[in-house]
Amino acid sequence: MSTQRVSKMTIQVFAAVTLVAISAGVVSAQKGKPGGPPMTTHGATKANPAAAKGQANAESKRTDADADKSARDADKKEDASERAEMKTARSLPHELLKGIKLTKSEDKSVADIEKKYDNQLRDLDKEEDAAEKAGKPDASFASKISALRAQEQADLRAVLTPSQAKQFDKNAAAITSNK
Questions:
Q1: Segments of the chain assigned E as strands
Q2: Beta-carbon count within 10 A of 8 CB
Q3: What does the domain layout of the chain look like in residue ranges?
Q4: Which among 167, 165, 170, 145 is positioned nearest to 154, based on CA atoms?
Q5: Cα–Cα distance for residue pair 50/53, rounded to 1 Å
Q6: Max CA separation in the chain (angstroms)
Q7: Over the stretch 14-47, which tens digit does the pLDDT of each residue have?
């Protein structure tokens, strides 16, 4: 073998050994810490304080989110009942006067009464919305609507003749029994 050939072969072997050594160093540098539970040393657990803080933070956020969700659900239920109460209040005159023939003057009086109480209901609804936006919801909203409905019912009955009042009372009893 010639010296040139031996030196070429030596260079190739040296290059191969160098590449193997470098790759072994890279692989060992990339190895992470072993996974699994915290290590126990002589009966004491080595905890990661950053992980514990993160876990506590996540738990408090979950608790806050649950509280927010239950508050939103309660608000939705309250809003739904308020809308139902308002819808009932607005449809009340038509249900009370079902089956009653009105004269033109009675019809005009009924329309005036409906308009009066519809405006009052609208104002009450605006007040309630403003109170909610201000963070001070009014718990007596339903009772105020009920009071307006009772007043409207009395005003409507006062316009009717005695025979019409009998049908009106039957309609009112049917509405009350359906509640």
A1: 40-41, 44-45
A2: 11
A3: 55-178
A4: 165
A5: 5
A6: 135
A7: 777 787 777 766 656 555 665 666 666 665 556 6
